[in-house]
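DMT family transporter, Falsiroseomonas algicola. Tokens?
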Amino acid sequence: MSPPPPSDSLRAARTRAILLVIGASATFAVAAAGVKAIGTALPVAQVVMFRNLFALPILFVLLARAGGWSALATRHPGQHAQRALWGMFGMFGAFHGYANLPIATVTALGFTMPLFLTALSVVLLKEQVGWRRWSAVVVGFLGVLIMVRPVGGGEAALPPLSVAIVLLGSVGWALAMMTIRRMGDAGESGVAIVIWFALISATASGIATIPVWVTPDATQWALLVAIGLASALAQLQMTAAYRRGETTLLAPFEYSGIIWTMMVGIGIWAEWPDWYDLLGFTVLVAAGLYIWHREVVRSARR
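Tokens:
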């Protein structure tokens, strides 16, 4: 027998969840545009610090809804420190990329995270990965090579050092995701994970900022505030979305971030993607979606 069709209320909840994910991706694009607008005028550590500091007021709203300060109680301080370390690693890589590469390209490179997560799960978690997912990983990195165009790209070829830094940042995001999974399996709340990350990373990046501090001007202060608020708002939207809808339904819509950042890049910096970019984006997204599909199939068999 086929399952009964979803009720009107369930369909409405799923629709709201999808719209929230798309909205969160668009809001993250706003934060990315702020980072790119600052560029190299401020040290990356300083931008990371203010991104987290100015996000805290909105995150504290989430904390209040979750029961107040008691929601921050944790039995896993070491894992929070690891998550913060890898998360900052990822943030530094992405912020460096926004300052030095086309904004949509950095977003696309960020979607190598599932590829690295698949590979790292074999090494660190001893998971079994079949030939289909390994093939998707290889294809995904071929998409990266197409975007980088090391052969025949001429002046359009991307700077390899900046690409490498962004990809290392994606490794950091993958390690952070693995740490979050462990904490989630141990019963740690999502609120605690998000806010402890903001607190720890703001403190650590603040210390790193001391020897390289540059006083922002009025425009830069406005951009820093916008980056922090937009990042926090996007996190709240994403959290609300995954409370209303299933991961298997929502995850593909996160790839809309490439479309939003492409529109921002074209509209503000005239960063028109060429056919290398579009082909690379398509290959990378297809590989990521296939890995996601195989994860869904594997979970259904458990």
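DSSP finds twelve helices and no strands in the chain.
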